Structure formats: C-alpha cells, structure tokens
Amino acid sequence: MRANTVGATGKVVVIDPGHDGGNETHAAEINQLVPQGFGQEKACDTTGTNGADGYSEHEFNFQVSLLVKADLEQHGLRVILTRNSDTGVGPCVNVRAAIGNNAHAAAAISIHADGGPASGRGYQLLEAENSVGGAGVDAASHRLAVDLHSTFDQESGLIPSNYVGADGYEPRDDIAGLNLSTVPKILVECGNMRNASDLALEESAAGRARMAQAIADGILRFLGQ
C-alpha cells in the first residue's frame, strides 16, 4: 500500500546519491578539506565502497536515486538531485548540504550503501546528533528517519543493521551533509555491499526497485503528515 500523499504534492525533495564515478581518478579534488560543521573539517568526498565483484557503491547510489526521483515526480513532487550523472567528481559534502538548504527542501535524503564486515547485514538510518538547523530541524529529521524505518521494514527486503547502530538507527556527529543541513535530512545506508545476501539485493533490478520504493514511500509518509 502506498503512503498517504495528501500535503506532499508540489513540495521540493532533494535526493543526494552518495559519491560519484569520477572520484577515484581525482584524488586531489576529493581530498581537499571542507567544512564539516561546528568548526570541524573533513575531506570533500570519498570513492565509496564496492561489492566483492567490483559493483560500485556510487553506481548503486545513482541507480536507486533515479528510481526514487521518478517515483516522487509521479506523485507531483519537485525532485532535485545533487548530481545528475555517475561520471563526474563530487560535489563536496558541504555543497551537497547547501543544495538542500538553498532549495528549502521539505525533505532531503542521502542514498548510500555500506562497506561493513562480511557477516553484517541490514540498513542504517543515520541522523545528525546536532545540526546547524537546530532542535526543530533535528526533530523533523528524526520523524523522517522513523517513517523510512517503517517503509524499509515493510518493503525493502532488508533487515535493520545487525552490526552497527541500534535497530537500524545510528546518530552521528561526523557526517557533514547532515551536520550542515537546515532542512530535515537523513542518510540511508541501503544494506552492506560486503555481505553476499545484501549485495545480491543491491545488484538486482528488482531489489533496487524495492529499496527505491521504500525510500519514496517513507518520504511521502513524512510529507503527508
């Protein structure tokens, strides 16, 4: 059953496909330090992880993001991607946050996959312990995480992470794209690419479609409240 979309039509959503296909060959660009928030700095970006067979996280992230975009647009939302191809470099993590902020997005989601221990399975919902948006934005981001937790449980084919965080939730203080957000934003780790079972889902077109629908439905549930 699709989420209630009352109140969602016309709103802006920013989808942030993690990493980029050109990062690996542009080390100087992605290693430059950028603001992480609260006076800290970190690298502009990283290359991301990959499955044992070489299937890359950046490709997975972009494929799922395109599916989420198409789904949300069918429901009348305006969707902005932080990158529009899988052959570029970056953008840097602080710029990704700024794209959501400048768009005054009703919700923003960073889409990733993890590179954890081979025995570990499951999805993670990362939230900023504190963002520059303040307590109100942090509370809204948590509601967004709760809505995606529900749809991931029901639709994605993944379990909550059994190797990090607690029941699929993981507060973090080192994610620049979350720390610097002034709009409701979370980061979704759509399974562990180093785990054979999760990777099989990630490499399957049907599996990616299930995860994309879970993300879209979670967003629609959040915006329809």
Judged by helices, strands and strand pairing, the structural class is alpha/beta
Instruction: Give me the strand/helix succession.
Output: EHEEHEHEEHEHEHH
Tell me what portion of residues adopts beta-strand conformation.
Answer: 15-25%
Give start-end ranges of low-pLDDT stretches.
Answer: none
Strand order, largest beta sheet: 4-1-5-8-6-7
From the alpha carbons, calculate the radius of gyration and give it in angstroms. Answer: 16 Å
Report the helical percentage: 25-40%
Average pLDDT confidence is 96
Q: Number of helical runs?
A: 7
Which key terms come to mind for this protein?
alpha/beta, 8 strands, two-stranded antiparallel sheet, 7 helices, 38% helix, 225 residues
Walk me through the structure.
It is built from 7 helices and 8 strands, in the order βαββαβαββαβαβαα. The protein is of the alpha/beta class and 225 residues long. The strands form 2 sheets. It has a 6-stranded mixed sheet with strand order 4-1-5-8-6-7, sandwiched between helices. A two-stranded antiparallel ribbon has the order 2-3. The model has no long low-confidence stretch (mean pLDDT 96).
Can you lay out the helices and strands and say which pair or pack?
Blueprint: E1 12-17, H1 27-31, E2 33-37, E3 40-43, H2 57-74, E4 78-81, H3 93-102, E5 107-114, E6 124-128, H4 135-156, E7 169-172, H5 176-179, E8 185-192, H6 196-203, H7 205-223
Parallel strand pairs: 1-4, 1-5, 5-8, 6-7
Antiparallel strand pairs: 2-3, 6-8
Brief characterization of the structure:
Helix 2 packs across helix 7 and helix 6 (196-203) packs across helix 7 (205-223). The protein has 225 residues and is an alpha/beta fold.
